[in-house]
Design a protein that fits this description.
This protein is mostly helical and 102 residues long. Helix content is 46%, strand content 4%. It has helices at 9-25, 49-63, 71-74, 86-96; strands at 75-76, 79-80. The chain has a two-stranded antiparallel ribbon.
Length: 102
């Protein structure tokens, strides 16, 4: 079965970067470089587990998709991953968003 999403990986990455920009603006954080596919959520943006949960809620709202298997992207060996990049998260979304998500 083909789970190709109508949004391209580039579209998803762009939307994810904008979403992250909005999130971190509230944190009064100065970034040296704009958020892109190589940006690391934990090392570069200082994300903690609660921030990942807030990001999941924001993604669900922005992409209109609930119940995605986030544990595939964010959990490893029974705990949170020690790092994930914007590009890795975008690829996860590309692979898992329903075809009808917009």
């Amino acid at each position: 079965m083909n789970h190709t999403n109508p949004l391209s990986l580039a579209d998803i990455t762009t939307r994810l970067c904008l979403l992250l920009d909005d999130m971190i603006q509230e944190w009064d954080m100065e970034l040296l470089d704009p958020i892109n596919a190589d940006t690391r959520l934990i090392e570069d943006l200082g994300f903690e587990s609660v921030d990942l949960m807030q990001l999941i809620v924001a993604i669900e709202q922005a992409f209109g998709a609930r119940g995605l298997p986030y544990e595939k992207a964010l959990m490893q060996d029974g705990g949170y991953v020690t790092e994930i990049s914007v590009g890795q998260l975008a690829q996860f979304l590309s692979d898992n968003l329903p075809k009808t998500a917009a």
